[in-house]
Amino acid sequence: MSTDQQSTGETGDGRTILLIGSGPIQIGQAAEFDYSGAQACRALQEEGARVVLVNSNPATIMTDPEMADEVYIEPITTEAIAEIIRKERPDGVIAGLGGQTGLNVTAELAEEGVLEQYGVEIMGTPLDTIYATEDRDLFRQRMEKIGQPVPASTTISLEEDESVSELTEDDLEERVQAAVDEVGGLPVIARTTYTLGGSGSGVVHEFDELLARVRKGLRLSRNSEVLITESISGWVEYEYEVMRDADDSCIIICNMENIDPMGIHTGESTVVTPSQIVPDEGHQEMRTAALDVIRELGIQGGCNIQFAWRDDGTPGGEYRVVEVNPRVSRSSALASKATGYPIARVTAKVALGKRLHEIENEITGETTAAFEPAIDYVVTKVPRWPKDKFEDVDFELTTAMKSTGEAMAIGRTFEESMLKALRSSEYEPSVDWADVSDDELEETYLERPSPDRPYALFEAFERGYTVDEVVELTGIFEWYTERFKRIAESTRAAQEGDFTEAAIAGHTNATIAATAGADVDAVEQEVPGRTYKQVDTCAGEFEAETPYYYSSRKNEFESGPLVGDAASGELEVDRDLESVIVVGGGPIRIGQGVEFDYCSVHAVQALRDMGIDAHVVNNNPETVSTDYDTSDGLFFEPITAEEVADVAEATGADGVMVQFGGQTSVNIGEPLQDEIDRRGLKCEVMGTSVEAMDLAEDRDRFNALMDDLGIAQPEGGAAHSKEEAMQLAHEIGYPVLVRPSYVLGGRAMEVVYDDEELERYIEEAVRVSPDKPILVDDFLADAIELDVDAVSDGEDVLIGGVMEHVETAGVHSGDSACMIPPRSLDDETLARVREVTEDIAEALETVGLLNVQLAVRDGEVYVLEANPRSSRTVPFISKATDVPIAKIAAKVMAGNTLEELEIEEQIPEQTSIKEVVLPFDRLPGSDPRLGPEMKSTGEVMGSADSFGKAYDKAQDATGKPIPDSGTAIIDLSADKFPDPDTEDGDALVDGFTEYFDLCEEVDLAQAVREGKVDLIVSRDRDLLEVAVEEEITYFSTPASAKAALEALEAKDEPIDVQAVSDRPKQTAEWGRSD
Amino acid sequence: MTQAYVALEGGHVIEGRGRAPGTARGELVFTTAYTGYEESLTDPSYEEQILTFSYPLIGNYGVREERFEDDRVHPRAALAKEFTADVAEWLESEGVPAVDHLDTREIVTDIRDEGAMKCGIAVGEDVTEEDALEQLEACKGMSEHTDIGAQVSVDEETVYGADNDGADVALVDCGAKGSIVDSLVARDATVHVLPYDAAADDVAAIDPDILFISNGPGDPANYEQAIGLVQEFVEDTPVAGICLGQQIVAEALGGSTEKMTFGHRGVNQPVLDLESGQVVMTTQNHGYTVAEPGDHLEVTQINVNDDTPEGLDGVVHDVITRQYHPEANPGPEDTLDFFDDVLAMADERASTAVPADD
């Protein structure tokens, strides 16, 4: 007997498949689609298909030239993709791998007839299915047809000839009331169809609020529809990840249980896999329902089905089918990492016609994809919110997503898993519990779900609240609440000198030592050590070969640290082999996005190229770096010095690289060095020394170094008190740029223009980081800002590229559009830029990457900052120049010299623009103006012969295209804009009036609300908030407005769609005009 | 302070936390299901075994009798990383020792590498490692439990669904799970549950439309009477079997069985139907398997992981059997239609039966 039946379906042989990515990282659509896309590319190529990939996001691994046969970094618009289809003539397109963006654009391409015209087949899940899941009415009909219960719902929609602005209040009220009655009264959930991550949806308790939401929803919805559903808040929310092949074999990959009750978006919830509190019968009922649903919808590949469930006293409880996502998703990435089952890979192969039992399970090597993973651990996912970046935004958790990323952890108990996840999220509640009364604790932190709630639970138990009380206040289920209490009790025990319970609960030795005021050596001797277990998809039933591990403490019958082989647990390592640990970047947040995952993955690839075993420590389930086949050892762990040192102990690694994972990895450099020394490990922190990294961040020492090197800096210094700051500001002269030292992404950076503003600022900044000084610098208004990324081996320096910012000083470099190559520098200045970079590289004894931020004014080059580590521009530069500087950096850190590597600098002949994507539409109440604080979540790239066209393409790619006609508001009233009477001001107004009628309305905001405005140039916060709500393209700085004008002038130039490696480059050295 | 020790074949003793006192011995096996602990612990097929849960947290949704498969707990002892108080109290009240705070993953991989093994357990105030080793010493192999059927079977015929209009099923109870009876009764059958050692006359007295051999613990070779019943009735009566039932049918009709290294226990076993090409997920709990089906049976379904027979059809006789548990509980409901197929054999028999007055 044999299972080796011949496949009846076709495989990929010779066929060309178009894969559409998901574009920039934004709230609701993060790095998960880089992971799924990268996995799909590999899977399709394995099957012999020729893969053409398009994505606008240069910071991704999937857009690396070697990932597909042709890689296009182009806007995900029908215009650009139609052009790619004309050039590449794909046989099929797989739409279900690029998130909502990929699905929507595929649907549009079909609707426009492009797919039919070029004979492009939609592979995997059919379009009808996509419509059936997105249109809730259709969905309900299909579910009713197969007898599946759904929450009562109805839609409020506009007739074709109706417009929302003409709808009278009475008319609207009547329709809304009828809808509310139909679903059984308030509260209800109001939702707009076809939106990402549930934007604009929420549980509504008040009728007036509902009216306002419906009005807005009708305006924004693509099909003028708002859905009103029965609120099932308080039920338990489940997700089932389902897979189906063409022969109708269906399996469940896993289920996921949300700790937070129904009513909070699953992307905002703390989620546990597998389910803990549903009995087998209830689980099997939902499992069967999930299979019935995927069959009814005819989905081929992966799919996510959401349920609401409650214990109604029957053996299996009661459930509702809430939603279906007929594609890979954030949840499927989580499920893949949680179980080891590669959903995107299998989805891609199923789309080509393979059957599940014909696809190998790579993890075991013994079994196939036709099985349901068995889990013998507990997985917890915790979202990460940008709360620290948006003081004006209410971060109450609702049905709309506000988190930018997530961390996942694996443990043998929920407590261990939860504590590891919280640690991995690197989130600190900005609340001093001592100042919080019981009333406030209950109302603000327990009843109201927020990013701080898990910590509030610990605090409540610390104060003696009972489990029942906390269940009552939070609605969190008793089983979980009890375990939060156990954690709190273990912390208390540690304070009293009993460390074991706290260690087993999942605290680090370092935390326990700090809590108890004990010495870490003493704690370590007393508690059980950590060892590693394998994630194997089968709970140990089969021997697995894939090196995917998590740590867990031993039981209480053992104590003391584990060393050598004992620390390795199930690891299969040859300790004699040369191996290096690459520390990843943790959850995606503003200021630290997918670009650092890109850098980490490149470091791993470089090491493996050199024959060195590369291990990854990271905890972000969305990423490529945490794919089990990226590295030689994947350690899904929190990033702390102790836990990374444990990995070093267990693997016998020779070195650790902390340059690639952004601030997360850089921050552990120093404590990790100390921990390695404390334990006497034979392991080094590689590349530029921890000492040099510290020097670069220490303002005073860095100043002195620049003075020695004769490199200009904006006048400034560090102030430790308000008086010092005032004095400095006066010496320098206003305006000055102020910021706290040691912060990420320009947090709390501001330009202040007088004493009063400075005073107000200091009160906030000191609150942000009390024991660190603030930096006061001359604000170089109107200077050109530059970013340079380079690699040094300690001798030679290779310049990856020089980028010029579109924005001038005053806008955070991470939020500024930028261009490569620069267009405003003469040869002499560029030569000086090179010289400055080389001097700094040498002075910091840089081995590895170096990012230098410079400003140029009146021919003088000033250095603003130098960071001897990876920067967020590394992937963009690498894509634009085809010089993979992260890989080169890893190689020189591992001992190669630049000379040996024989790599030449490349200067692109075209212009590439990196533009940012901003989250204001997701965060109501946020200030939508660009400023010194970084707020963007992701980036896109646009390339063309001219700056204007490249900028235009980049805007298209952000999803906020520049309209070429219509009505515009050109409001130059803000200080930052040139006066309308000046020549510059005139030029701006005249420029736009060539394309647009100027808006004549008195109430501009109202005009925007009524859909009468197509483009806005302004810095009026209120007006821009309306623009954000209404999704109107706007520009809030003179620089971006001018760039937009250039884009308008270039509108008629050809779109110039080209594979990224075909774009012309010149082999030449930056700043050397031979 | 309660001590708890688990002694493994070979003499290695592991310390754990005692959750229910007592001493026990049995064959150490594991299940990979993460739900369904109540169903597993009341599954008669675990008789004379010590059940290790590979999922670390057991007991999360309490203990409710309506989810039981039988009226008592069958494994001799239970091991987990962590039992809830509910489960610990239940096991204590049933007199079944329980140990947790164990590295169950290590135990599972030991079983995987060494095979299902003998095990001794001692839990109590003053127990020692020696007490566990003593239990280990006294532990017998599964095949040595020759009269294991008597421990798990009904003593006399019991009828379920007496008022139903459908087929009469003679279910030979070698340790049947309650859900098998429920699945048949729900399809309008009258189920006559007979002792594992029922005589041919007992069966003939019922004149059943189906002879159904249930699941159960231990070596199929120890169920001689049931093997005899199949041989006696297969010419005239359609025969069905689940799990041990499939093995007994194979033994009866010229096939052979063998002991597996550590068996299949879990709710995620993939089974390929050779005719349709479809794969379904099944619940399994067996340590023996059909080695050769013999000339009278053909293999219709196989395990995707190791190709062992999962479904047999009679070549000439009306016989269908499953190695897995179509009745689920715990586990997926993908294969409930097996019971429809079984009962269809009864209908067919009725429609083709020669009139009695001939």
UniProtKB/TrEMBL annotation, chain A:
This is Carbamoyl phosphate synthase large chain. Residues 140-352, 703-894 form the ATP-grasp domain. The keyword Amino-acid biosynthesis applies. Mg(2+) 1 binds at residues 306, 323. Its cofactor is Mg(2+); Mn(2+). Residues 1062-1074 have a biased composition (Basic and acidic residues). It comes from Natronolimnohabitans innermongolicus JCM 12255. Mg(2+) 4 binds at residues 865, 867. InterPro entries: ATP-grasp, ATP_grasp_subdomain_1, CarbamoylP_synth_lsu_oligo_sf, CPAse_ATP-bd, CPSase_dom, CPSase_lsu, CPSase_lsu_oligo, CPSase_preATP-grasp. The large subunit is composed of 2 ATP-grasp domains that are involved in binding the 2 ATP molecules needed for carbamoyl phosphate synthesis. The N-terminal ATP-grasp domain (referred to as the carboxyphosphate synthetic component) catalyzes the ATP-dependent phosphorylation of hydrogencarbonate to carboxyphosphate and the subsequent nucleophilic attack by ammonia to form a carbamate intermediate. The keyword tRNA processing does not apply. Residues 1-426 are annotated as: Carboxyphosphate synthetic domain. ATP 1 binds at residues 136, 191, 197-198, 230, 232, 237, 263-265, 306, 323. Mn(2+) 4 binds at residues 865, 867. Large subunit of the glutamine-dependent carbamoyl phosphate synthetase (CPSase). CPSase catalyzes the formation of carbamoyl phosphate from the ammonia moiety of glutamine, carbonate, and phosphate donated by ATP, constituting the first step of 2 biosynthetic pathways, one leading to arginine and/or urea and the other to pyrimidine nucleotides. Pathway: Amino-acid biosynthesis; L-arginine biosynthesis; carbamoyl phosphate from bicarbonate: step 1/1; Pyrimidine metabolism; UMP biosynthesis via de novo pathway; (S)-dihydroorotate from bicarbonate: step 1/3. Mn(2+) 2 binds at residues 323, 325.
From TrEMBL, chain B:
The keyword Acyltransferase does not apply. One of its GO terms (biological process) is glutamine metabolic process. Its EC number is 6.3.5.5. Pfam families: CPSase_sm_chain, GATase. L-glutamine binds at residues 45, 216, 218, 244, 247, 285, 287-288. The active site is at 243 (nucleophile), 325, 327. Keywords: Amino-acid biosynthesis, Arginine biosynthesis, ATP-binding, Glutamine amidotransferase, Ligase, Nucleotide-binding, Pyrimidine biosynthesis. InterPro entries: Anth_synth/Amidotransfase, CarbamoylP_synth_ssu, CarbamoylP_synth_ssu_N, CarbP_synth_ssu_N_sf, Class_I_gatase-like, CPSase_GATase1, GATASE. Pathway: Pyrimidine metabolism; UMP biosynthesis via de novo pathway; (S)-dihydroorotate from bicarbonate: step 1/3; Amino-acid biosynthesis; L-arginine biosynthesis; carbamoyl phosphate from bicarbonate: step 1/1. Residues 2-122 form the Carbamoyl-phosphate synthase small subunit N-terminal domain. Residues 1-167 are annotated as: CPSase. It comes from the Archaea. Composed of two chains; the small (or glutamine) chain promotes the hydrolysis of glutamine to ammonia, which is used by the large (or ammonia) chain to synthesize carbamoyl phosphate. Tetramer of heterodimers (alpha,beta)4. Belongs to the CarA family. Small subunit of the glutamine-dependent carbamoyl phosphate synthetase (CPSase). CPSase catalyzes the formation of carbamoyl phosphate from the ammonia moiety of glutamine, carbonate, and phosphate donated by ATP, constituting the first step of 2 biosynthetic pathways, one leading to arginine and/or urea and the other to pyrimidine nucleotides. The small subunit (glutamine amidotransferase) binds and cleaves glutamine to supply the large subunit with the substrate ammonia. This is Carbamoyl phosphate synthase small chain. It comes from Natronolimnohabitans innermongolicus JCM 12255.
